[in-house]
Structures
1.
Amino acid sequence: MKLHVWDVNLKIRLIGEALFNLLYWMYFPFITVYFSEALGNQTAGMLMTIPPLVGILGSMVGGSLADRLGRRPTMLAGASLKAVMFALFALSSSSSHWVNYFAFIGVGLGGALYGPASDAMVADLIPEKDRRQVFATFTTANNIGAVLGPALGAYFFFHYRSELLWTCTIVMLLYAIAIFLRIRESKPDTTQKVPSNAILTSIQEQWKGYGIIFRDKIFVLYILAGVFSIITIMQLDLYLAVYITQEVPSQSLFHWHDWSLRLTSTEVLGWILGLNGLLFVLFVLPATKWLNRLRDRDVFILSSALAGVGMFAIGLTTNIWLLFLITIVFTFGEIIRSPVTNNFVSQYAPVNARGQYMGASRLQFTIGRFAAPLTVFLSAWVPPMGVFTFILVCALMSIALYIKLFKIYAYEDSPSR
C-alpha cells in the first residue's frame, strides 16, 4: 500500500511518532545511568522494575478506553500526559531526582495509554491485506530513531539534558495539538453515546472484558508463545552482551599489509548492535513484502526458529566475521516477527474489543522483559553453552506453542470474529 494513499490520520501519526521515537531514544538508554549516579545502583535497579508494571496497567486501561471512549481521545490523553511529564522533567532541578523519576514514570504511562489505541486505529483504517506492510512502515520509522537516537543522546543527554527534554515537550505538545485538530475518530460505531462518567464506570467493565480475554484459550496461547519468543529476542541486550564482553577476545577486523583495524570485545558488541539496528531499518519493509504470502503461523514459527538457532550459534564461535553472519540470522528472526504480531491481533480480536486485545497483547513483551534477565543470573552457575541451550529451548517452546495455537484456531480460514 503506497504511502501517498494512506489516510491522513496515519500520515500525521507516522511523522509524529517517528519524531518522538528519535527523541525518546536520545534519553531512554541513559536514564538508568542517570538514576544510578543520583540514587545508587541498588536503588536504581529496584526503581527500574516499576516501569514495566506501570506499562501493563497503562496498556490495559488504554486498550479499554480506546474501545469505550474512542481511539482519538485516548491517544490525545496519552500524548498530552507525555508532554506534561516531559515539561515537569525539564523544569525539575537536577537535585529533584524523585520528581524526575515521577516524571519518567508518567512519560511511560502516557506511552502505555497511547499504544493500544494507536495500533487499533491502524487496524480500523487499513484493509486486511495491507496491514502487515503498514505496521512494518511504522516499525521502520520507530527503529530509525532507535538507531540514530543513542548516538545523538550520548552527547545531548549528558551535556544539554534540559534542552533535550524541552524539545521532547514541544514535539509532544505539537503532536497532541495535531491529534486534536486533524485526527478523526476511527472506532467502529462511534455514534454510540458515552456517559459523562465513562472513565470511572469503565473500570469494572474493563476488568470484566480482560477477564473474558484471559479465559480465551487461543489468545492465552498466543501470549505464552510470544513470551518465550521475546525471551529469546531480548538476549541481544542481555546475555549476548555479557558473553561478548567476557568471552570474545580482541581481534582484527581488517588487515592491510602492516595495518589492521583491531576491535576490543566491547567494540565488537557495539558493531553487532549497530549491525542489528541497521538491518532492522533497511529490511523491515522488504522482508514484510517478501513474506507477505506466508501465513501468520509460518512467519511466527520461522521467526522463533531464526532467533533461537541464531542465538545458540553465537555460543559456537568467537570469530568476529562469523558473529556478524550469525547476527544477520537472528536479526531477521526479530525483523519478520514485528509486523505480524499486530496483524494477528487485529484479525483475531472482535471489532468492538480491538483496543483491549491490543493492550492485552503487549503483556507478552512486558512478561518477556521480566523473564529475559534470567539468563544473566543463570550464567553465574552455568557455562555459556548451557545458557545458549536454555535460550534455544525457549525458542523451541515458542514454536511448539504457536503450532498448538494454530491447530486450535485455523486463522487463515476463519472469518473475522
2.
Amino acid sequence: MTLFTTYQEAIDWIHSRLAFGVKPGLERMEWLMHRLDHPEQKIKAVHIAGTNGKGSTIAFTRSVLQAAGYSVGTFTSPFILTFNERISVNGEPIQDEEWLRLVNELKPLVEELDTTDLGPATEFEIITACAFAYFAHVHPVDIVLLETGLGGRLDSTNVVHPILTAITSIGHDHMAILGDTLDQIAAEKAGIIKRGIPIMTAVHQEEALAVIQRIANKQQATCISLHDTCTFGHVEPTETGERFTLRTPKGQYVELETGLIGTHQRQNAALAVLMIERLEEEGVVKVEEEDVYTGIRQAVWAGRFEKVRNQPPVYLDGAHNEEGMNRLIETVQAHFPNKQVHVCFSALRDKPYKDMVQQLETISSSIHFVSFDFPRAESAEKLYTSSRLEAKTYDDDPESVLDFIQEKKDDPTAIVLVTGSLYFISDIRNRILG
C-alpha cells in the first residue's frame, strides 16, 4: 500500500474523487464509519442544515461558545480561504500534516470500498469521514458544529448522532436533487431530525415549517420555531453589522450587535442564541449573558458581506441562489441607500443565474460579468447576454475584477459589490488580499 508523503499529494487525491460526482446515500459512509470504529458516535455534535445561513449561524454559535471558554470544532463547506478550513478548531484550520495523516488513514479503506458493490466514495464523503476521525481520535473538542453539504436526509454528515439539530432556512437550490417545491426540499432538510433530539429552525414559510414539524412529531423530537417563539425590536443597521433587541422564551437581549453585515444576520444570530439556550437547558454548556453579547459581536465569516477594501469600498458576498440574492439586495438597500452600486458577478451554469441577474439589476449602477477557473463556471459572455442593463461589461478573466475596482477608486459615491458563486468569491478574495 503506497501512502502519501506530502500534503499536496493527499489533497490532489481527494480532489480526484470529484470524478465520482454527487451520490446521495449513507451506505458508503456507514461502511467507512464501521471500519473507523464509529468516530461519529464519539463526538458531541450539533447538526445544521438549511439552504442559506448555515455558515453564519455556525460562526455565531462557535463565537459564543468560545467566549464561554469551550473548544469548538467546525465542519463547513465550501471553503473561502483555504481547503484546510473545512475542518477547524476555534476558527483555526487544521494543519497540513494533520490532513496528510487523516488521508493516509482513509486511503486504504477507500480503495477497499472501491472494490465493493457500494461503489467508490465521493470527495465529500472522504472529507466528512476525515472530519469525524479528526474530532473523535486526533483532536477531541467540547462540541462539534457540523454543516450538511447538500440537503440532509441523504447527506454524508447524516450518519452522526447529534445532541441538537437545526435548520436555518428553506429555499430553491439544488432542486434537481432535493425536489422542485419548498415542502419537498424541507422534507430532505428535515431528514437530519433524529428520534428524541430537539430541532431548532428559522424557517418562515408555512408549508415548509409544517413539514419540519410533522417530521419532528413523528420522531418525537421537540421542534422550536424561531419565528413562533422570538421577537425582534429596535432593529437598525450599523457601519459594521446589525443592531437589534431579541426576546426569547428565556429572556431579553437588549441591543445585540453583530459583526456581520446583512439583514438576514439578525435571524442567523437569533437562531444561534436559541441553540445556545437549548444546549444550556440540556446541561451541555454553561454560558453567561455577557458571553452571548461578546460572541455575537465578535463572530466573523469570510465572504459574507465582507469588506475587503476601503477605496473604493469593496464588499464580497456569496449570494449564490435566489434567496441569498434577495437578502443581499435587502442589505444593500438598508446600508447603502445613497450609493452607486457597481457589481461584479459570476455564477455556476447549473444555478438560476438569469433570475439572480434580474434581481441584481434593481440595485446596480453597472454590472461586470466574469468567469473563473472551475468546471461548472458559466462563461462571462452568457452571463452578460442574460442582463438587460445598459451599463454592463464582461471578461472571462477574473483578474479584470481588479481593474473594474480600480476604475472606481476616485468616486466617493461608489461601492463595489463582488457576488455570486462562493468559489468565485474565494478566487477574488485571494486576488485582493493575497
3.
Amino acid sequence: MAATPISASSRYIPPGTRQYYFVPSIATKASPSRAELDAGTDLTGEIADVSGFQTTSESQETPDLGTRFTSKIPGRITADDSSITMYASEDSQDVRQILPRDTTGFIVQFPEGDEAGKTMDVFPVKVASAPKMTDIEDPAKIEVQFTITSEPAEDVTVPAS
C-alpha cells in the first residue's frame, strides 16, 4: 500500500492572473467585505515588479541535557521587506497620488485573481518611502516601499460580489 499522492495542481504564471489592490480601510483583515475591496484601487496594470509580501518563521533551538541532538521549534513570525515597483507617468499622475509616504492601509494580494471562493492575502501596511528610480535606460518607475505593520491574514477566502 502506498501513500495517497497529492492532487495535481493547475499550474499558472502570475502575469495575467495575480492581482494587487491597495485598500485604505478594512475593519477585519481576516474577512474583508466585498464593499471594502471594491473601495480599493487595483494597482495591477501599472506594476512592473513586486518584492516581499510573504511571511517567514524563525527557528528557535531547544537543547536539553537528555540528548546531544538540538531540536528546534517554530519561533517568531516576520514579514519580509516589501515593495511594489510601478511605472511613473510624465504628467506626475501616477502611484504618487495614491501612495505617498506615511499612507496606511492594506495591500491585498490575489495570487489566483479576484474571484469569489479563491484565496487572498491581506497585508496591513504603511508606506515607508516612494523613491523615483534613476535608471536612464528603462521606463521611469517608482518603488513604493512598505512596512508590514501587523501580522497579515493569509489564505483568506475572496468574498462574492
